[in-house]
Design a protein that fits this description.
Layout lengths: L3 E6 L6 H7 L1 E3 L6 H10 L5 E6 L6 E8 L4 E2 L23 E2 L1 E13 H6 L17 E4 L1 H10 L2
Parallel strand pairs: 1-3
Antiparallel strand pairs: 1-8, 2-7, 3-4, 4-7, 5-6
The chain binds a DNA duplex (12 and 12 nucleotides) through loops.
Amino acid sequence: MKNYWLIKSEPTCYSIDDLKRDKKTAWGGVRNYQARNFMRDGMKVGDLVIFYHSSANPPSAVGVAKVTSPSYTDATALDPKDDHYDPKSTKENPIWMQVDVAFAEKFKNPVSISLIKANPRLKGVPVAQVGSRLSIQPLLEKHFEEICRMSK
DNA sequence: GCCAACGTTGGC
DNA sequence: GCCAACGTTGGC
């Protein structure tokens, strides 16, 4: 059984085009326990992920990525020079994890947050919730499929 | 263990 | 730039 996810990224920081260019990237720098738990406990190799541009015009689901590794230690947390350095995380006791994700598809038509909110078949999708700040969210298969369908 | 203060996220 | 939502921190 495959699981489905949505991951957010600010396109000025890392966009779907960056992922397309890189083919694959380590999804590191996540500093939220709930998001980490989803990566650590929920994500499996082969899971499909909606790539979402937050703080964009308009904020939109812009493509699909695929999980290509189990979770492993996020080394940026251990590097004092890194922006995402976290002194609470140590080599002996790392607290932050990441997975690798690979580019799968860039949507022909991005699906904006207003379209997501307006679609009754996407009722309850976390990203459409008021105040949704979680950068990694689980998705139901039918919701994943519906967003892909809307992008066609 | 409570809770106020504070910081961050992210849509608008 | 505003502000609501909400996670984290730290004093008690």
